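User: Modeling request: complex.
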Amino acid sequence: MWAYRLNIPSHWRLLSERYRLAGGYCENCGHKMFPKQKICPKCGSEKIKPVELPRRGKVITYTIVQTPPRGFEYYTPYILAIIELEDGTRVFGQLTDIEPSEIQEGMEVEMTIRKVRVSGESGAIAYAYKFRPLE
Amino acid sequence: MQKPTIAGVGFTKITAHWKQSLKDLASEAAVKALNDAGNPEINAIIVGNMLSGIINGQENLGSLVAESIGLSGVSSVKIEAACASGSAAVMWACLSVLSDLFDSVLVVGVEKMTDVTDNEDVTSALATAADYDYEVFFGATFPSLNAMIMRSYAKTYNLSPEDFGYLPILMHKNAVDVSHAQLRFPIDMDGYLNSPMVSDPLKLFDCAPIGDGAAALVITKKDGAKNSDHLVEIAGFGSATDTLATYRREDLSRLRAAELATTRALSMAGLESKDFDIVQIHDAFSVIGYLNLEALGIVERGKAHEFVASGDAERSGALPVNPEGGLKARGHPVGATGVYQIAELALQLSDRAGPSQIENPNVGVAMNVGGTGSNVFVHILRRVE
Ligand SMILES: [Zn+2]
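Assistant: Request completed. Predicted assembly structure:
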């Protein structure tokens, strides 16, 4: 229940991350991070400003999920990937608009907003970033 | 400083224990360990467990376990560090004994994974070791995150699918004659390669099975031990963390926390990697087993498969690895696993391991990995002459 049913405030409070890739920028050393943390993992500074991260990047590595958790049966098989954005920041999400056989490490992708999960017939429908191949 | 000492060891068989509850398993292992230690007075209990709240609807395992063995009144808590909960419990028991405030501490690692209902599948439960907001929300499973590490490692070092098969094949071979092991049958390379994909490129036979089990240790000071014929010293321990999420690591083909924990444990023990005579690695997934061997300083990065393929890791080899079958075949009841690993080492270092006994080991090491390497514990054990 706890994993399958999405708690709405837990999604709502992350909408800027999930809709706009809002991350953090360290004013001391210039490091960018996703998500924003209280303290910079590189230099220890507390001077972290919110920043919108670039929406384009490339696939670092990926997997094709054949055994899903509850709630993701509909999407199976689906592709999960680590993406390195143009500024070097890394994010994780699903790839979309692509067949598993077409994926390659290094391929260029861009962020898009898609339906990520549905909690049963009457539960919340959550939209968030996915990544699709760059034309 | 007097090092913490293992005075008693106990564990259950690992399987789907349909007739036994979490409490039954924990108390069975605890009583065996207490008897093995000559039933000393216990000052504290530390329970290692990951999933009891989710799967069994039961938290407060400190109280549950104490009561189940007639020790209500004793200080008792549960410690959680995902799949490394068991060795986290052992480490905090060592610290308790080293504090001089407690003389004898009982550690119980327990996991009862088969009690799931329709509402909580084991896949979702295990995924709580990862970052919920930034991984699991998007459909990440625990195997899928390890699959990305596997793909990355294979690409970095140019490994073939076969290269990952050597470790599970050896683990299954080792478990055949081990009575408490869960999967007591051999597999071959064809069987490995043809096992179903769980999360490409990770196959079913890369993954440890789901099972129930409990393991327990009595940790005390050498001078206070009642049964002194089979004491084993915990010469050093170390733990370290890394980012909760896998994607937030710069290099996916190494485990930084495992390297740090190893350095800390070796430093405390005053030993080097070449001093190991027997190794317990966390082969929940083949690639994690390989990364453990590399983090422990046993092999160069990218060479772990060659080491295992060469036969050096066999029971009769130069440096036996998981002679009882490891997580893959002995079994991996997640929160209990770290305690099993250290219990297996303690038996080996007191020549009590039965069919899996290797010849005269002096120093052993156990590496237990929480998450995809986000929380790692290393214990180094030494024979007491
Ligand atoms: Zn900084």
